[in-house]
Design a protein that fits this description.
The structure is a single chain. This protein is mainly alpha-helical and 193 residues long. 74% of the residues lie in helices and 0% in strands. The protein contains 6 helices and no strands. It has helices spanning 9-24, 29-57, 62-85, 96-120, 133-159, 166-187. Helix 5 packs antiparallel against helix 6 (166-187). The longest helix is centred in the first third of the chain and has 29 residues, at 29-57. The two termini are 40 Å apart. 24% of the residues are buried. Residues 1-56 have low confidence and may be disordered.
């Protein structure tokens, strides 16, 4: 196999010659193969366990946290860009694209909330490590609060009778502001990098 993970012609020829040689020998090839493959998983499991234990106890860097939340952060940025590009406002929900964009807000806020929760929780595949002290003291709690607020406000928006109810204007404005605040709080992590 070459360095790109592809078999070369000489590698394939070598494998074929070894297979033919094994067929002609009196040595039971199956037992040899079984013994060697049985030893590998135990070693691989021990290595994976040691790596997971070392990772679980480590504190992540600000860059690790930023990388882990980048996709969720970009979702908020895309939502705000779509909102602006369609010249949406709390008074424009009769315009179908604006209404559909607003319907996405709750999902996006929930993704941010879940992402931030997951990267801090041991045993979850998204876990990157304990939060770095720079974020844990102020910036991370502010981001969590902003995400919680955005989820709460988007739940209120879903419960309102939009676009027909006057309350819809108020809760739409609060949703837009919550989404902006959430993006700003994530972007503030850059200061601690």
């Amino acid at each position: 196999m070459n360095k790109w993970g592809k078999f070369t012609r000489s590698t394939a020829s070598g494998i074929a010659i070894l297979a033919l040689a094994a067929c002609g020998s009196q040595t039971p090839v199956a037992s040899t193969v079984t013994e060697s493959t049985e030893a590998r998983p135990a070693t691989a499991t021990a290595t994976a366990t040691a790596t997971a234990t070392a990772t679980a106890t480590a504190t992540a860097s600000v860059a690790d946290y930023m990388a882990a939340t980048m996709s969720a952060r970009n979702g908020v940025d895309k939502w705000l860009s779509d909102w602006d590009e369609n010249t949406c406002s709390s008074l424009s929900l009769e315009h179908m694209p604006c209404y559909l964009i607003m319907m996405r807000a709750g999902s996006i806020a929930g993704i941010v909330e879940s992402t931030i929760s997951g990267i801090q929780k041991e045993g979850v595949p998204a876990y990157v490590g304990a939060p770095p002290a720079e974020l844990a003291s102020s910036a991370l709690p502010k981001t969590i609060a902003a995400a919680d607020k955005a989820v709460s406000v988007t739940d209120e928006w879903s419960a309102a009778d939009c676009p027909d109810d006057y309350e819809c204007v108020n809760v739409t404005l609060r949703t837009e502001m919550a989404m902006e605040q959430m993006l700003d709080s994530i972007d503030a992590w850059e200061l601690y990098r």
